[in-house]
Amino acid sequence: MSLFTAISVSASGMEAQRARAELITENLANAETTRTPEGGPYKRKDAVFSTVAAGDSFSDVLSSMATGGGPQGVAVSNVVVDDRDPDRRYMPGHPDADPNGYVSFPRINPAEEMVDLMSTSRSYEANVAAISSVKDMINRSLDIFR
């Protein structure tokens, strides 16, 4: 695996974590949203990751086919929407209350979302550190050839 392929693997991880962070912040922003254009309360979203080939060059594709595997990156393959029933709270004066006075709220736990956001941030930072290490290796290799 070349150093540039290692950068490609980390870059795919950064892209996937960025997409996950966007979904988490959307969940946090809509934690109290009781009405959406689709009707009903907001539904929590989560990213599903899958592996993808990391290299785009012909040699990377050829080597992965010859060896049965090669460098693997990550990508968001699907966005899953939470289908659980919403939380119901008794709030008779709320504009979205049903005839019995209950309002449907999204099933979002802000503490859980914040933990997921911290995990996402740390994964992103780990990929940045990996890219920095590869960049340092490339610079040291160039220094050797001077």
Helicity range of the residues? 40-55%
Q: Rough shape?
A: elongated
Low-confidence stretches: none
Q: How far apart, in Å, are the first and last alpha carbons? A: 24 Å
DSSP summary: helix tally: 3
Work out the count of structural domains.
1
Order of helices and strands: HEHEEEH
How does this structure look, described?
It is a single chain. The protein is of the alpha+beta class and 146 residues long. The protein has one domain. It has three helices and four strands; from the N terminus they run H-E-H-E-E-E-H. It has a two-stranded antiparallel sheet. Strands 3-4 form a two-stranded antiparallel sheet. The longest helix is centred in the last third of the chain and has 35 residues, at 110-144. It is elongated and about 75 Å long.
Topology overview:
Elements: H1 3-29, E1 45-53, H2 58-67, E2 72-81, E3 87-90, E4 102-105, H3 110-144
Helix pairs in contact: 1-3
Q: Which features characterize this protein?
A:
alpha+beta, elongated, two-stranded antiparallel sheet, 18% strand, 146 residues
Provide a brief overview of the structure.
With 146 residues, the protein is of the alpha+beta class. It has helices at residues 3-29, 58-67, 110-144; strands at residues 45-53, 72-81, 87-90, 102-105.
